[in-house]
Design goal:
The protein has a nine-stranded mixed β-sheet with strand order 11-14-17-16-15-18-10-1-19. Strands 8-7-6-5-4-3-2-9 form an eight-stranded parallel β-sheet. It has a two-stranded antiparallel ribbon with strand order 12-13. The model has no long low-confidence stretch (mean pLDDT 97). It contains twelve helices and 19 strands. The protein is 31% helix and 24% strand. The chain folds into two domains: 217 residues, TIM Barrel (Alpha-Beta Barrel); 124 residues, Lyase, Ornithine Decarboxylase, Chain A, domain 1. It is elongated and about 80 Å long. By secondary structure, it is an alpha/beta fold. The structure holds pyridoxal-5'-phosphate. The site of pyridoxal-5'-phosphate (PLP) has 12 residues, from helix 9 and strand 9. Pyridoxal-5'-phosphate binds next to helix 9 and strand 9.
Length: 366
């Protein structure tokens, strides 16, 4: 049991709102794959997947064990494993997960396994590198892939996909359009040689926002579901999903000249009241937020973090706030706060969310 008083609450209604918001940008027939990798962007992949199972066509995770956790929780929706590892392929099949095959070493390993296990039309996904240069086959690999696939009834291509490198950046429109066109040309070759039509997809959240015309058959929705678009206007249309709260463990009254925390980083210049909160850098609160760079909320009033962020605690200035030990403290409860935390931490919303460590209890509320 996780009885920590620091809790990350996940707002189910906000997830639904955000999903609907993106669905409205798409054709009615376009499928939605929801990305729940890395614990559902730091939320709770199992709870989010259970909650949204009836609303989506596919889920995606990064690694095989993330997919296994969903299957063990009873999720039956198809699950695409974006970055399966060769050594996990047997397990992947045992749990009916669908691999992304992105180069010939994993492609051949999977074909060998499918052959040995006498699999029939096992769904696989083929990813092409069209410019991100991360993982994916090259367009020049198409003839070889096709020749392997056409004579093989152990596997079936469930989807063909690629990933955009700069879908959030409209100044890179020419590059992105090129990626889309090159991908469309690859797809065309598959259509010409296959007796069936795999699902085709290239858009992530910011792709849906900026390049909806390239939605093909499916889109892969990640950060948008969790409340963040690629600009502030888009984010305002979305609802905040994450509320991170804790409580006041202890209150101190300190005199001028006294210091707070490690390295005596903060010195009081007046009589002060401070509160200690049981959340620290081991919970995902960056050390960059210390020394008055970030404010939390106590009874809706803002209270700066003073001194250095400790591993398990922070201290805050509550001199002007009427509160007592045990009272609730909000680390963030809006997109503005999360974006501010990201800015001060010198990172992006994705990292803030996924950095909230597994020690913090998750609660889905709807
Ligand atoms: C993480 C990921 C996504 C989701 O991206 P967002 O920007 O969060 O929407 C989509 N596709 C792939 C291949 C990914 O790795």
């Amino acid at each position: 049991m996780n009885n920590h008083v620091t809790v990350l609450e996940i707002d189910g209604n906000a997830l639904l709102h955000n999903l609907q918001y993106f669905k409205k940008k798409l054709n009615a027939t376009t499928k939605v794959l929801v990305v729940v990798k890395s614990f559902g962007y730091g939320s709770n992949a199992v709870q989010v997947a259970k909650f949204l199972e009836k609303e989506v066509a596919y889920f995606a995770v990064a690694y095989t064990d993330e997919g296994i956790a969903l299957r063990k929780a009873g999720i039956e929706t198809p699950i695409l494993v974006l970055h399966p590892q060769v050594q996990n392929l047997e397990l992947l099949v045992a749990y009916q997960l669908e691999p992304n095959l992105y180069n010939f070493s994993i492609f051949n390993a999977f074909l060998k396994l499918a052959d040995e296990k006498l699999l029939l039309n096992y769904p696989i996904h083929i990813k092409f590198n069209t410019g991100l240069n991360r993982i994916g086959f090259w367009h020049t690999d198409v003839p070889k892939i096709l020749s392997e696939i056409i004579k093989n009834n152990h596997i079936k291509i469930a989807s063909l996909f690629s990933h955009l490198a700069a879908s959030d950046d409209v100044s890179e429109e020419e590059f992105t359009t090129n990626q889309i066109n090159n991908f469309a040309y690859i797809v065309k070759q598959f259509y010409e040689h296959l007796a069936y039509k795999p699902i085709v997809h290239i858009l992530n959240t910011s792709g849906i926002i900026n390049y909806a015309k390239a939605q093909f058959d499916m889109v892969r929705l990640g950060i948008g579901l969790y409340g963040f678009g690629n600009d502030i206007e888009e984010t305002k249309q979305l609802k905040n999903v994450f509320n991170l709260t804790s409580i006041i463990s202890q209150i101190h009254l300190i005199e001028p000249g006294e210091t707070v925390g490690y390295n005596r980083a903060f010195t009081a210049n007046k009589p002060m009241k401070t509160a200690t909160i049981p959340v620290g850098h081991a919970d995902g609160i960056s050390r960059k937020l210390g020394n008055q760079q970030y404010s939390v909320l106590v009874h809706n009033q803002s209270a700066k973090i003073i001194g250095n962020v400790c591993m398990d605690m922070i201290m805050i200035d509550i001199t002007d706030i009427d509160c007592k030990e045990g009272d609730k403290v909000t680390l963030f409860n809006s997109q503005e706060m999360i974006l501010n935390m990201a800015e001060v931490s010198e990172t992006i919303s994705y990292e803030i969310l996924t950095a909230i460590s597994q020690r913090v209890k998750r609660l889905l509320k709807c």
